[in-house]
Amino acid sequence: MTVAHIVFSARQLEQAQALPRRCMDTVIASATDTPVSYWRTLRAEGVGPDYLTTVNGRVFYKRESVLNYIHAHLWRPES
């Protein structure tokens, strides 16, 4: 299954800038008003932001990686 990339708004980017330095996909989803399943599918397909997995299986994303991903998929009005 190929994920359809979300086009993020400036508001979502602003909200993401307030994320903690490291956070879980549930926190990212809440901050950006996106489904948790979107972030999990990106991770499963290897096309999302970089992440870290702890020895107990928890997944954390670095804020910088999330912001870079959102910048790459930011809505830009055509001129």
Brief summary of the model shown:
The protein is of the alpha+beta class and 79 residues long. It has 4 helices and 3 strands, in the order H-E-H-H-E-E-H. Helix 2 crosses helix 3.
- Our measurement of the CA-to-CA distance between the termini, rounded to an integer number of angstroms, reads 33 Å
What sequence of helices (H) and strands (E) makes up the elements? HEHHEEH
Identify the overall geometry: globular
Please state the second-level CATH architecture.
Answer: Orthogonal Bundle
Mean pLDDT across all residues, rounded? 93
Which strand order does the major sheet show?
Answer: 1-3-2
* Integer tally of domains: 1
Helix content: 40-55%
Low-confidence stretches: none
Query: Rg, please?
Result: 12 Å
CATH topology: Arc Repressor Mutant, subunit A
Secondary-structure topology with pairs:
Layout: H1 10-16, E1 22-23, H2 25-32, H3 36-45, E2 51-53, E3 59-62, H4 63-72
Antiparallel strand pairs: 1-3, 2-3
Helix pairs in contact: 2-3
